[in-house]
Amino acid sequence: EIQSSDTPSGRHLSNPTTMKQLILFAAALCSVILPIGAVVRETEYGYVEGTNFTLHTGKAVQAFLGIPFAQPPIGALRYMHPLKYAGPQWPMNQPLNATYPRPSCWGVPLQWVSHQDPIYDDFSEDCLFLNIYAPGDAAEGVTSYPVMFWIHGGGYTGSGSVQYPGHFLAAEGVIVIIIQYRLAQLGFLTTEDENAPGNCGAMDQVMSLQFVHDNIAKFGGDPGKVTLFGQSAGGSSSGLMTLSPLTEGLFHQVIAESGTDMAPWAIVDPDEHPRNYAVQLVEALNRELDYECPTDNNTAMVECLRTVEPYEMLIGGILEVEETLGFITHIWGPRVDGKFLLDRPITLREQGKFHKVPVMTGQTTEDGSMFALIGVPATSDGGLNRTLWYEVINKLIKQLSPPGADYEAATRAIDFEYSNWPHIDDELANRDRIVDMFTDCGFAIGNDLFARSHSEYNATYQYLLGYRSANATEEDLPAWMGVPHNGELPYVLGWPYIGINPMVKYHLAGMQQVLDFNEFDNHMTDIIIKMWTNFAKYGNPTPEPVNNFTWPQFDTTDYNYMSIDRMGDFEVKKEYNPHRTAFWTQYAPWILKGLEVPTEAPTSTPSTAPPVSSSAAPASSSSDATTIVSSTVSASTEPSGGSVAPQTSDELTSEGQNYRIATIVLGVTCGVLLLGLLAALWKRTKVDSELKEQNGNYELNPVKVDP
Questions:
Q1: Which of 508, 463, 534 is nearest to 166 (CA)?
Q2: Which residue ranges have biased composition labelled Low complexity (predicted)?
Q3: Distance (Å) of CA 552 to CA 170, 364, 561, 604
Q4: Which of 188, 56, 109, 132 is nearest to 699 (CA)?
Q5: Does pTM surpass 0.70?
Q6: Which of 141, 280, 376, 396 has the fewest other C-beta atoms within 10 Å?
Q7: How far apart are CA 529 and CA 534, in angstroms?
Q8: Measured between alpha carbons, how far is 549 from 312 in angstroms, rounded to an integer?
Q9: What's the pLDDT tens digit per position in 156-195?
Q10: Separation of alpha carbons 330 and 236, rounded Å
C-alpha cells in the first residue's frame, strides 16, 4: 500500500487538508468531471506522487507540486547558500504528496496585489520547492520531452510559483518547471563575507536547475534540452545564468522577457558596498522594533538577524531602510561575488565570457507605464503640466545622480530627448513621454544589447508585444498604460484558460484573474504558446509558419524583430526605435573611457564594436546620433518651484556638448531611477496597508493597485 508523506525525515510541509484547500479541491471536483489519477515518479531524494488529469482541450497533463530541491533554509541556514539533502527522503511505499500547492517565499506583499484575488496569504521560509508539469504520457525511458525552466519575476522581492501555471505549455509537448527562490532580505542580504555571503536567491536558482538536470529524465524529460525562460527579474536572472560559471551544461537556450542581465537594474552595483544595507536594516529594526542586534561584528549581527521574524524584516525593516536612503536603489538583488557572478555583466560580455546559447528576448510596448503610475501619482489623474514635468525630473535626478554629477545637465538632456516638441505643453503627451523614458532605459536598451551580444554567436529572436485585450476596461487597465509590464504573461502561460480548468485553478491556490478574457485572447494565447514551445523544441519559434507568420532571426545586419500590434496583427520589422538606441548608446562608451566625445554619427556599423554594456553597443547603421542636439526646439517659461527651465534654441545649440556629456549620467543612473519608482509604491500604500500575524498566517489588506 502506498501512503503519501508530508513530513519526510521530520520536515514540516504545509498540511494539504486545511479547510481552504479542501474547499478549493471540492469546488474543482464539483465543477467538472475530469479523469484524475495518481502518478508516482522517482527523484534522487525519493519518490513523489502527483496527479494526471485532462484539460479542457482533452489533452492530459501530469502535475507534481511542491518538490523540495534543497534543505529548508531556516534557523542556522538563513542567509546561507542552499544545501542538498544527504540522501533519499521518501521511500516508495510512502512517497511525497506532490498534489497541492506549497507556501511561497517571504517577499514584498504588494507584488501580489495585481495578480491575486483574493489576496494570497501563504508564506514561509521553508519555500524551496519546484513544480513539474509534463504531458500525460511522459515517463522515463518512454519519452524525452524538451524542458522549459521558468524563473519568476517580482524585482527579486516578490511573487511565487502559484502565480504561474505550466499546464498549458506542457500540453504542447514540453515539460515545464516552475521554481521558487528566496527573495528580498532573506534571499540577497549580505555581509560580504562567510557569515552572509549573499546571492542566496541566485544560488537557489542554480541548485534547482541542477536538480532538474539530475532528475528530469525520471519524469520523461531531456536534460540535454533545457530552455530557461523568465520575465522581469526572471528574465534578468535567466540572463545572469548565461554569465555564471556554475551553470555550465545545465541549460541550452534562453527566453528573456522584459528583463536581461544587461538591464541597468539586473544586479546590485558592486560599488554600493551592500553590507551597508544590512547594517541599515539592523539599525531600523533596533530603532523601530526594539531589537538589540549589534552592527560592529558580522557574526553577531547575522546571528541576531536570524532571530527576527520574516514579516518584521520584510515589512517594518525595508520601509525604514528606504526612508534612510531616500529613494530605494537596488538593495536586495544579485551581486558580483566571485562565485555565482565573477564580474559585472558588462565586463563579462565584453570579454566573451558567457554561455553562447540561442536566445529569444523582447518586451511590451509600454513596459514602463506601471512604473510611471507608481512613481508619478499625477499620471493616474491625467497628464503632466510643464511645471510638474520639470519637478519630477529634477527631483529624481537630484536624488539619484551619482556624486559629482551635473544633475542640471542630466535633467535638460532628458527633457530635450523626451519632450513632445513642439507641443511641449500637451499634458497627456508628457505622460506618454514619461512612459517612453522608463520603457527605454529600463527595458528596451538592455534587451537590444542582450540580443546583439548573442546574435554574434547563435540564433537570436527579438519581439515587441503590443497586443491588448479588447476586454481591458479603463477600470482594469487605463488606456494610457497600453500594454504594461507583465502584459505578455497571460498569453505565454495560458491565463485565459485558468477559469475553465478547475484543477489548474486549485494548483494555483484559487487564483482569480481580474480581467475577463475573450475568444480572440484565447487565439492569441494559442499562438504565443505555440511559438514559445517551438523555440524550446527546435530553437526556432516558427520552424513552420504559425498563424501564417514566420519569425526571422535578429542579427546586426537587419535587426529583425516580431511586432504584434494592438489588434493582434503580426509583422516583421527592423531596428526597434533606432533613434532612442542612439541616444542611450552612441556617446556613453567614449565618455566612460575618458575619450573625446564624437561630434558626428557613425556612417556604418563599426567593424570593431564598442564593449557590450548597458551603456555601450555596436552602432546602428541607420542611427543619427546628432539628432540629440537640435536647433528647432521651442522656448518655454521657467517653471515654479526652482526647477530647471527649458532652454532656448540658441542655448541648446551652444551647449550641445553638455547634452552629450549628460547622457552618461543618464546611462549610469536610469536603472536606479527606474527602481527608485518602486519605492514610491511603498510610500503610497504604507498608510493603507496592514500587516499582522494571526494564527500563524500572513494577512494583508492593501489598497488595490491596477496591474
A1: 508
A2: 599-637
A3: 25, 19, 7, 22
A4: 109
A5: yes
A6: 141
A7: 8
A8: 51
A9: 988 999 989 999 999 999 999 999 999 999 999 999 999 9
A10: 14
Strand residue runs (E) in 260-299: none
Q: Strands 359-364 and 460-465, how do they pair? A: parallel
In the DSSP assignment, the letter for residue 249 is T
Query: At 390, is the pLDDT very low, low, confident or very high (cuts 50, 70, 90)?
Result: confident
User: What confidence score (pLDDT) does residue 441 get?
Assistant: 83
CA dist 534 to 147, 360, 538, 545, Å?
A: 12, 12, 6, 11
Taken in order 651, 657, 660, 666, the sign of the CA dihedral is negative
Q: Hey, what amino acid is at 134?
A: A
Cell of 229: 525562460
Q: Which residues contact 682 (CB under 8 A, 6 or more apart)?
A: 110, 318, 319, 322, 328
Rounded to whole angstroms, the Cα distance separating 416 from 407 reads 14
- Active site residue ranges: 232
Distance in angstroms (rounded) separating the CA atoms of residues 616 and 637: 35
Query: CB of 454 within 8 A of CB of 460?
Result: yes
Note whether 615 and 589 are within 8 A (CB). Answer: yes
116 and 139 Cβ atoms separated by less than 8 Å: no
| Average pLDDT over every residue of 538-553 | 98
Taking every pair of C-alpha atoms in the chain, what is the biggest distance, in angstroms?
87
Q: Are 707 and 484 in contact (CB under 8 A)?
A: yes
Question: Would you call 463 helix, strand, or coil by DSSP?
Answer: strand
* Residue for grid cell 536610469: 670
Helix (H, G, I), strand (E, B) or coil at 606: coil
**Residue 214 burial class via C-beta count within 10 angstroms: exposed 0-12, middle 13-18, buried 19 and up:** middle
C-alpha cell at 336: 558580483
Distances 98 to 4, 128, 679 between C-alpha atoms, Å: 9, 14, 37
Which of these, 183, 151, 181, lies nearest to 164 by C-alpha position? 151
**Distance of alpha carbon 387 from its chain centroid, rounded?**
33
Tracing cell 524551496 back to the chain, one arrives at 128
Q: Please say whether the beta carbons of 218 and 43 come within 8 A.
A: yes
Cβ atoms 164, 112 nearer than 8 A: no
Cis peptide before 118 (omega within 30 of 0): yes
- Cα angle value 45/49/52 (rounded, 5°): 140
Contacts of 388 (CB under 8 A, 6+ apart): 378
Grid coordinates belonging to 626? 546628432
State the amino acid at position 40 in one-letter form: V
